[in-house]
């Protein structure tokens, strides 16, 4: 199973590396990162202009005029953006950690956590001995602290905080030094599953995963319990009052406001994609030094066999196993990023660009009539439906490629699959290498898919800036 997993990861990482070396791939990443930075700078400039009491806040964030018509306290608007951003970040973290639910990876973690936990419990000291050793180590650490400083003269609250800190530190130190294990029994104990991992390695992995999960859960619990309710009751109370909440609700249910909220959601959606991309990039960065270290240890294998009975060999071997697991974890993050990236880009193409165009249309006509509302609503629906239909056709053809129907015998594949392979090979060559055809006629293709998306976004924003300058000129004249 591990061999198949490594083979799958190597094939995926090989495709990522080859794709990242292409010019179009780098251009796409640069453009997406630049758009994200521009959006962040626009929000910062809008907030800065509001804090210094300038009345031209809408120069930097024009869409805030919708919220300004509902509430003059613009800090509510920016606080709402911050709250939604925090929510998207939390959702992105859950998506990043969703590798725990993958079937293959879940099987590996099940082997680590469930099966081996039940096995290595036989190597633990009795609970009474563990508690006694833990208390002794805690008293030693606390005594060293009091003897090296004047902490004994502190007031009771600070003293309690110091004692609590050293208690947590002692627990971590106790498990890192493996004092809860019976080392004599560990030396002769064999795991029934994943036998190449020692009990020491398994204990260190369990400690790392437990600490990671505890930090993740505590951070989310604190955010949900304290931060979100405080922001809700402090800021939203200025928008919705209990005496006339239905009037505010009715005023919010109009087409420009609804589309504007979708516009904000689309921007926050891009932020979530960026956080997932950062996680994949960090995993990719960590792979090179880890693999360099593992190859260096592999070259010193003969030297390690000579030192087999020494302590350093056990430490190096345990470290190598932990690093191999971490490498597997990084590669899984990159694979999952590739799986989610296509779906996220599909949602952005299908709904983000039409919503941005609708915002521009509303700002130009200001007060749309029912026929104008019907027109751009129909454009939105048709545009999204066409894109989704195109992706569904592509998905059906891809499924046909991966699951071909056989013709006459099992050796001769269906001729439809051969046509699709030639067509997609030609399209990929045109998109990567420009207008140079590999098969078929010399029909030009205008740029890559990414360049088309960026061109559409630039067109929308250029039109919006022209409208903004025209609006400014009318005001100052």
Morphology: flat
Radius of gyration: 30 Å
**String of helices and strands:** HHHHHHHHHHHHHHHH
Nearest-integer average pLDDT: 58
* SS summary, helix count: 16
* Cα-to-Cα separation, first versus last residue: 74 Å
- Biggest sheet features: none
Helix vs. strand class: mainly alpha
What's the number of extended β-strand segments? 0
**How helix-rich are the residues, as a percent range?**
over 70%
Low-pLDDT segments, ≥5 res: 1-17, 54-67, 92-106, 301-315, 439-452
Indicate the proportion of strand residues. Answer: under 5%
Mind explaining what this structure looks like?
With 477 residues, the chain is mainly alpha-helical. The protein has helices at 2-20, 23-51, 65-70, 74-96, 103-120, 127-148, 156-176, 183-188, 199-235, 245-252, 255-299, 301-306, 311-365, 370-402, 415-433, 449-476. α1 (2-20) crosses α13 and α11 runs antiparallel to α13 (311-365).
Layout of secondary structure:
Blueprint: H1 2-20, H2 23-51, H3 65-70, H4 74-96, H5 103-120, H6 127-148, H7 156-176, H8 183-188, H9 199-235, H10 245-252, H11 255-299, H12 301-306, H13 311-365, H14 370-402, H15 415-433, H16 449-476
Helix pairs in contact: 1-13, 4-9, 4-11, 5-9, 6-7, 9-13, 11-13, 13-14, 13-16
Transmembrane segments: 33-54, 74-97, 217-235, 255-278, 344-365, 371-395, 453-472
Keywords: Membrane, Transmembrane, Transmembrane helix
């Amino acid at each position: 199973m591990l061999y198949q997993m490594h083979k799958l990861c190597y094939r995926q990482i090989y495709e990522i590396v080859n794709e990242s070396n292409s010019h179009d791939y780098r251009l796409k990443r640069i453009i997406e990162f630049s758009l994200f930075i521009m959006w962040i700078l626009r929000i910062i400039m809008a907030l800065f202009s509001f804090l210094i009491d300038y009345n031209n806040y809408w120069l930097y964030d024009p869409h805030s005029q919708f919220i300004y018509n509902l509430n003059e306290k613009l800090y509510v608007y920016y606080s709402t953006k911050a709250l939604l951003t925090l929510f998207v970040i939390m959702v992105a973290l859950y998506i990043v950690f969703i590798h725990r639910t993958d079937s293959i990876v879940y099987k590996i973690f099940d082997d680590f956590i469930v099966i081996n936990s039940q096995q290595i419990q036989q190597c633990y000291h009795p609970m009474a001995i563990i508690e006694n050793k833990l208390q002794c180590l805690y008293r030693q650490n606390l005594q060293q602290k009091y003897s090296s400083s004047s902490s004994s003269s502190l007031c009771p609250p600070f003293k309690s905080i110091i004692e609590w800190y050293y208690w947590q530190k002692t627990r971590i130190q106790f498990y890192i030094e493996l004092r809860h294990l019976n080392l004599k029994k560990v030396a002769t104990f064999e795991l029934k599953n994943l036998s190449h991992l020692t009990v020491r390695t398994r204990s260190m992995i369990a400690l790392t995963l437990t600490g990671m999960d505890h930090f993740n859960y505590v951070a989310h619990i604190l955010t949900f319990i304290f931060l979100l309710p405080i922001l809700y009751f402090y800021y939203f109370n200025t928008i919705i009052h209990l005496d006339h909440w239905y009037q505010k609700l009715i005023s919010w249910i109009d087409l420009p406001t609804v589309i504007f909220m979708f516009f904000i959601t689309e921007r926050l959606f891009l932020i979530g994609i960026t956080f997932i991309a950062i996680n994949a990039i960090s995993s990719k960065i960590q792979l090179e030094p880890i693999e360099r270290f593992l190859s260096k240890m592999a070259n010193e294998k003969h030297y390690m066999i000579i030192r087999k009975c020494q302590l350093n060999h056990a430490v190096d071997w345990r470290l190598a196993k932990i690093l191999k697991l971490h490498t597997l974890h990084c590669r899984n993050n990159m694979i999952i990023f590739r799986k989610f990236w296509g779906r996220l880009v599909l949602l952005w193409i299908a709904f983000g660009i039409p919503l941005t165009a609708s915002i521009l249309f509303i700002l130009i006509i200001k007060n749309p009539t029912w026929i104008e509302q019907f027109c751009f609503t129909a454009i939105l629906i048709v545009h999204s439906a066409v894109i989704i239909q195109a992706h569904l056709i592509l998905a059906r053809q891809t499924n046909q490629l991966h699951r071909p129907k056989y013709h006459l015998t099992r050796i001769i594949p269906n001729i439809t699959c051969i046509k699709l392979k030639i067509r997609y090979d030609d399209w990929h060559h045109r998109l990567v290498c420009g207008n140079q055809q590999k098969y078929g006629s010399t029909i030009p293709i205008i740029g890559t898919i990414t360049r088309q998306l960026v061109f559409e976004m630039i067109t929308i924003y250029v039109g919006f800036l022209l409208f903004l300058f025209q609006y400014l000129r009318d005001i100052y004249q």
